[in-house]
Amino acid sequence: MLSRLSRTPPPPLAMAARALPRSFYPTAASAMIVSTNSHFILPPSPTVAHISFGKSLSIIGRKFHYGLNCKEDRRWSVAGWSGKVFASQREYRKSRKRPLKKKEKELELSINICIEEQLPDDPEIVDISEMLRLNVPMAMKFAFDNLKDSDYQTRDRAINDVGCFESVELSVLLCNDEFICELNKDWRDVDSPTDVLSMSQHIPELELPILMLGDIVISVETAARQAEERGHSLLDEIRILLVHGLLHLLGFDHEISDEAEAEMEKEEELLLKSLGWKGKGLIQSAYDAEAAGSSPLENIDRKKEGSLRFYRPKFSYIFCDMDGKETSTLLNSKSQISSVTAEALREATSRGVKVVIATGKTRSAAITVLKSVGLAGKDGIVSEVSPGVFVQGLLVYGRQGREISRTNLDPIVCREACLYSLEHKVPLAAFSEDRILTLFHHPLVDSLHTIYNEPKAEIIPSVEQLLTGTDIQKVIFFDTVEGVSSTLRPYWTEAIGDNASVVQAQPDILEIVPPGTSKGSGVKILLDHLGVSPKEIMAIGDGENDVEMLELASLGVALSNGSEKAKAVADVIGASNDDNGAADAIYRYAF
What we know:
With 591 residues, the protein is α/β, with parallel strands linked by helices. The chain is built from 18 helices and 21 strands.
């Protein structure tokens, strides 16, 4: 709840705004005629516009109003039928002329219902904007009638008799929390969303024939949250907020005193009852919520689960890593995808964002993991017929899941790695598409299947048999964290020279891959295949093997549990994998 803003607005010329008409509605300001004896005619045409505002603007137009006007400011005046029929033409009996009644003074209501550009084309919001086209004039009519005989002591009487004006202008803007939060920061120095803002434009000293009543800004995101808490529909809540905002513009202000609050609360209830609208007034609802112990708006983090419907996607694609165990992105430390993360992925895809897996795992392992939360298969985010980047970018699948790129490790490097494994009894696994090959049984090799969901390793009795007729994309060594950092990595970095590269997704695993390859290079191959620019993608990762992918993306998010190398190149450092960091990144940055 918020009273009128008193901060002095900047000059109108500094507040440019453009109107973007919806393709299925004519962009127009609609007018209605209201005679001063309260007879009124509903506006004949939709009053919906889609608008956007320059980022540098602190607010829109002159006290917000001009920025809300539609680009084509057409009005319709609906009065009685104006044709004339003479009695002689219709063969009616002539009678003595009666004195003409004095024509009632008519008051034109010019009403703009606008939808902020960042709100998607949500069917419910579009329907509500259409309903407001009818609701707003009725609310104004009843509110004006109540002014005539009111005896409120605290109301600002700058607007008392609307009959002295030729027309009244009012704009209503529907937006999301992010937009209304920006207004709060600019005008109230408060960095949080609110449900409704009222911006008065009336300047009594000017004595204009037009009553520029002002603007009502409603966050449908906050309204939806409150509607759920209070057990009524989104339309009901928006009507309640409309009444509250309108009363502020007519001089009521619950914040100045207890008496003023009581008077405004009374008028809210009266107006809602007169209109036949459901729900209690906003002031009473706020008291009820406080008594029930509901969280204040300031403590609600924006864009959480279920609220993405109020935001347009910022990216066409999200590339997500899902490697590892202790250090992972989609997976938690139990090597599982949490229900929160699964719901975020599901909601992102339902909003038109394509989620693509980019992992060191095989495709079959990724499918197994995501199948457990219902995200594999035709309607999921990974399948045998969907794009993806696997085995550290060495296998890339494009449209219909067809292989578009394969990079194999030099056979000489493969042979040397196998011989080293046998000689030093260091367990090794060779990745060959969806097969895992090894030279001897070892529990750490078994963990690829039991923990990381890879195919069960096949034990090959000799190096020659392992290499014969088999394409190997990468080999990995298992050891302790200390063994990898102090022995394996230094040795193989020097031994392979320019013939291969070493990389780590996990601190206890060393991977040997073809030179010049990475997840990032695999993602780039896929983007070229799909005709997508890196500017259109967001990437979420955590490991050293995610560095190139994070650098490539328009926005790279590294989770806090990730490697220092990943965090060093990321644009944003998110929460940890055990705190649903991937989900938080999607809700916070993707929309």
